[in-house]
Amino acid sequence: MTIPQQSSLLRMSTFRLARRLRAQKSDDSVSDAQFAVLATLSIHGEHTLSALAERERVSAPSMNRTVNCLEEAGYLARAEDAIDRRKTNISLTASGIELVEATVSKRDAWLTERMRALTADERDLLARAAELMGRLATQ
Amino acid sequence: MTIPQQSSLLRMSTFRLARRLRAQKSDDSVSDAQFAVLATLSIHGEHTLSALAERERVSAPSMNRTVNCLEEAGYLARAEDAIDRRKTNISLTASGIELVEATVSKRDAWLTERMRALTADERDLLARAAELMGRLATQ
DNA sequence: TATTGTTATACTCTATAACTATA
DNA sequence: TATAGTTATAGAGTATAACAATA
Fold first, then answer.
1. Helices (H), chain B
2. What is the dihedral of CA A49, A54, A57, A60, to 10 degrees?
3. CATH topology of domain B15-138
4. Where does A23-138 sit in CATH, by number?
């Protein structure tokens, strides 16, 4: 198999699996865009609005709106920066942490159940592949 | 490593790689939702509106709107069904086929370039993993 | 009566341009 | 003057409810 053929296979399988995983949510009231923000705050901690916009590759006004919705729903909180008063520091509330954990658990449970149907060798192969995929994505 | 740990690794890497791949487009004027429709028509051929809505898991009015945009942009065409005149058959135009091929090429080129940095054994491992991921997604 | 597609309406996500407050 | 955040406005994607045409 040529390298382009291998790439094409990996691209298709990655999209299909990501799509199935994304469908596993713990709460339908939060959109994909909103959940991505909560997940980013969960993994990388407190962000200013513009840092969050840059990381999610959307405009600041767009992120501002999404943050407004999430703040209103009680999943995150804004706090004025003590030093630079133009900035607002955005972080998860207890309720936001809970929602991220519940969704991550649901997705992992869905995948774990399907991985039990594989052999130990196949699971090991997938774990090693995951490490390589991470490297490809950050390259 | 436990099965849940393997699952969690695979989930994170899949999302990261899918995100990077999705960012590789050949034309910024077509949204993700619109491109997904074009890709579905490219892979699975002609669809009625409701078949398309069901496959993309959105409502019929939502799909109708997306199809309107794509029709106006000239990427797909509606045709009346000869037998059942309630139905409209939706298929890609030459321009639509071209756009799908250009985007797929760009994504594959991006991934192929990064896979060249791996060893032959690592690429082979990823190709076998892709097959397993496809199986997990359809299970 | 049921199905297919569409229109009406409303809310979220997206963007650019313009504004406010602070540095 | 520059930067961080926000508001104004407009276009696209999502949904449910209601409608027209056809089976």
1. 3-22, 32-44, 49-56, 60-72, 94-115, 120-138
2. 40
3. Arc Repressor Mutant, subunit A (1.10.10)
4. 1.10.10.10
The more confident residue out of B67 and A19 is: B67
Q: Spell out the residues 6+ positions from residue A108 whose beta carbon is closer than 8 angstroms to its own.
A: B4, B7, B8, B11
Structure letter (DSSP) for residue A23 = T
Q: Strand D closer than 7 Å to the CB of A36?
A: no
Model confidence at B93: pLDDT above 80 = yes
What tens digit of pLDDT does each residue of B37-70 get? Answer: 999 999 999 999 999 999 998 999 999 999 999 9
> Does the beta-carbon distance from B17 to A14 stay under 8 Å?
yes
Neighboring chain B residues of A116 at a CB cutoff of 8 Å: 3
Instruction: Note the pLDDT tens digit of each residue in B106-121.
Output: 999 999 999 999 999 9
Q: Are A88 and A48 in contact (CB under 8 A)?
A: yes
- Greatest alpha-carbon pair distance for chain A in Å reads 58
What are the domain boundaries of chain B? 15-138
